[in-house]
């Protein structure tokens, strides 16, 4: 019992001076905390250390809380921070000083800054925004977005779409209109979106104008991999080998290596009407079939492992194989068709 008391006393003697020392130190909140819109859907948070804050042998960091639109908390040694966020409903954040000394921590009060939502009448912003990217044969990325006008948007409303990717911003020049001549669709045949990047964000911003109402702007963030429409698998080949149907293909046109895709194999028995969809991660598929039947085969692809799933590719051109499709020019006593997927 005496030994335990001595240990507790020793701990108290070691810790207490640090606590007393920190209690004598006042931790001041940062000053001049401001929020500045630095780009589409991007905010610069900046502040300065309090001139009253003691430095000495202390380590000073800053605790930052994003309150809206999406909660996030992090700490930093810097006195500024960039945040990407949709701003059509405003933005608010806290920041406070963290002071560390010999493993102990003290905090200041929070200071708050806020960006008000941009002006605009309710229900005039676009709705149901949807975007798709596509890797083209020219090794660039296209972008296609569609939306619906706001329920209270006047018939004379003109919507304008901008996208931002990293530091580059561009306005749409190619719109499709609805029956009231309002822009409801936009196409970029070429963009500054870098193919092959992982989880980079594409910012879409749509504002508008009308003689009869202030049109509220709208923003949305998209993961570039999640909205990519994957290309069709290439050089699909189907043949019979004894009682097995064998299919082979090459990866879609993409900057990702061949191990980055999953495939669906769609087989229809034209004799019985039975349909079968099988998933595979390789570039070939083998299946025991009734060789007296006739079959149609299609393949499609999506991202796997290297990036989040995008939109499934279109199905490859339909290939037929079976009794009624025997082709004597093949090397094996089989039927054989090849189809080269259209590249777009």
UniProtKB/TrEMBL annotation:
Membrane topology listed for this record: Single-pass type I membrane protein
Q: Which InterPro entries match?
A: FN3_sf, Ig-like_fold, Short_hematopoietin_rcpt_2_CS, TypeI_recpt_CBD
Gene3D superfamilies xrefs: Immunoglobulins
Membrane-spanning parts: none
Give the highest taxon in the source lineage: Eukaryota
Q: What residue range is the signal peptide?
A: 1-17
Molecular function GO terms recorded = cytokine receptor activity
- GO CC annotation: membrane
UniProt subcellular location: Membrane
Q: Where is the Type I cytokine receptor cytokine-binding domain?
A: 128-226
Record Pfam families: IL6Ra-bind
* This protein's record includes keyword Signal: yes
Indicate yes or no for the key word Transmembrane: yes
> Sorted alphabetically, which keywords does the UniProt record give?
Glycoprotein, Membrane, Receptor, Signal, Transmembrane, Transmembrane helix
Q: Which SUPFAM superfamilies match?
A: Fibronectin type III (SSF49265)
Q: Which PANTHER family match?
A: CYTOKINE RECEPTOR, INTERLEUKIN 5 RECEPTOR SUBUNIT ALPHA
Q: What is this protein called?
A: Interleukin-5 receptor subunit alpha isoform 3
Its organism's taxonomic lineage begins at: Eukaryota, Metazoa, Chordata, Craniata, Vertebrata
């Amino acid at each position: 019992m005496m030994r335990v008391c001595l240990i507790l006393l020793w701990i108290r003697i070691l810790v207490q001076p640090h606590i007393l020392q920190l209690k004598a130190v006042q931790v001041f909140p940062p000053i001049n905390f401001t929020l500045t819109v630095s780009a589409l859907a991007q905010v610069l948070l900046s502040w300065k250390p309090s001139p009253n804050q003691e430095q000495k042998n202390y380590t000073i960091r800053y605790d930052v809380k994003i309150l809206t639109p999406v909660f996030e908390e992090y700490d930093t040694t810097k006195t500024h921070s960039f945040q990407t966020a949709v701003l059509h409903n405003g933005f608010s954040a806290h920041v406070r000083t963290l002071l560390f000394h010999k493993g102990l921590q003290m905090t200041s009060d929070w200071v708050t800054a806020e960006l008000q939502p941009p002006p605009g009448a309710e229900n005039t912003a676009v709705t149901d925004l949807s975007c798709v990217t596509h890797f083209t044969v020219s090794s660039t990325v296209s972008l296609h977005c569609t939306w619906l006008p706001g329920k209270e948007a006047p018939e004379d409303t003109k919507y304008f779409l901008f996208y931002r990717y990293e530091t580059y911003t561009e306005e749409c020049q190619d719109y499709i209109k609805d029956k009231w001549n309002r822009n409801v669709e936009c196409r970029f045949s070429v963009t500054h979106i870098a193919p092959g990047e992982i989880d980079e964000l594409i910012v879409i911003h749509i504002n508008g104008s009308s003689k009869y109402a202030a049109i509220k702007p709208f923003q949305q963030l998209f993961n570039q991999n999640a909205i990519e429409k994957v290309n069709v698998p290439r050089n699909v080949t189907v043949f019979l080998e004894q009682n097995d149907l064998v299919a082979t293909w090459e990866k879609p046109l993409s900057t990702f290596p061949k191990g980055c895709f999953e495939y669906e194999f769609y087989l229809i028995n034209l004799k019985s009407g039975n349909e079968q969809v099988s998933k595979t991660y390789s570039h070939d598929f083998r299946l025991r079939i009734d060789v007296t039947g006739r079959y149609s085969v299609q393949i499609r692809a999506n991202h796997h492992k290297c990036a989040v799933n995008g939109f499934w590719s279109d199905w490859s051109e339909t290939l037929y194989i079976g009794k009624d499709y025997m082709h004597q020019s093949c090397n094996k006593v089989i039927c054989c068709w090849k189809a080269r997927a259209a590249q777009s």
